[in-house]
Specification:
Elements (H helix, E strand, L loop, with lengths): L4 E4 L6 E5 L10 H7 L4 E5 L16 H14 L5 E6 L1 H12 L4 E7 L7 H17 L5 H8 L2 H6 L1 H13 L2 H12 L14 E6 L7 H8 L5 E6 L5 H4 L1 H12 L3
Helix pairs in contact: 1-11, 2-3, 4-8
Length: about 250
């Protein structure tokens, strides 16, 4: 299955692939397109059940999401690339890097977990039940509260409105499918197998993926470098300049 894809930047530039968070879409990465598309071929994928991409068959897991990403990139002639994942997109990116290791030159894991502990899994099941019962609107304001610091939210109404729109445009079935596999997440035993250079980026004020937790799983990746940004969960929107420059320097080997 191939997914919706958005490509910006020179055809001959190094490909830099972005995978978005749950209940968003490739539109999440607009600041990075503006910042990085002169230096890289910026490739944004709509994950299954999000944006313009169809759902995968029922029961699909992280491996299926990862293979759909890899197949989509192959269809567009993108054989080797650096890969950036945000939140749910980073969970998928881990599997892309494990299952298609020869194709991934460098890996950035931003604002994510490598394992979902039982209390957090229970929270995801509660969210699933709410969406199945009452629709995606139940997730809009609670997600914004988790994803941004209060100061940024108050100062950036246009950014928050854009994210509201992405959440509302996410099909309930797409959210539920992604949330179900997030609830089962456990990549911890796989992390030592990641051999490409890896940058693990945490938001210093992230409530959804605490920096201490991210630093702990980064220690299981032999090639990982850990860094923090002055932001909450969607650090690419709250600290876009620092986020983009840190990624660019890492991908360019600095």
């Amino acid at each position: 299955m191939t997914l919706a894809i958005h490509i910006d930047g020179p055809a001959g530039a190094p490909p830099l692939v972005f995978l978005h968070a749950i209940a968003t879409s490739a539109a999440l990465w607009r600041p990075q397109v503006e910042q990085l598309s002169q230096r890289f071929r910026v490739v944004r994928v709509d994950l299954p059940g999000h944006g313009a991409s169809a759902l995968l068959p029922e029961g699909a897991g992280f491996a299926d999401y990862a293979d759909a990403v890899a197949e989509t990139l192959s269809t567009h002639g993108i054989d080797r690339f650096s890969l950036v994942g945000m939140s749910f997109g980073a969970m998928v990116a881990m599997q892309v890097a494990l299952r298609h290791a020869a194709r991934v030159e460098r890996l950035v894991l931003a604002c994510c977990a490598a394992r979902t502990p039982p209390p957090v899994a229970a929270m995801w099941h509660e969210r699933i039940a709410m969406v199945e019962r009452e629709g995606i609107e139940t997730q809009v304001e609670t997600s914004l509260d988790r994803w941004f610091t209060p100061d940024f939210a108050a100062a950036s109404p246009q950014t928050l409105d854009g994210v509201r729109g992405m959440i509302r445009q996410t099909p309930a079935a797409g959210f539920v499918a992604a949330a179900r596999i997030i609830a089962t997440l456990d990549h911890m035993a796989l992390l030592p197998k990641l051999a490409m250079p890896c940058l693990v980026l945490a938001g210093a004020e992230d409530k959804a993926a605490a920096p201490a937790m991210m630093q702990d799983f980064a220690a299981h990746i032999p090639t990982a470098r850990f860094a923090t940004l002055p932001a909450a969960h969607l650090a690419n929107l709250e600290a876009p300049d620092a986020f983009g420059e840190m990624i660019a320097r890492f991908v360019e080997g600095q």
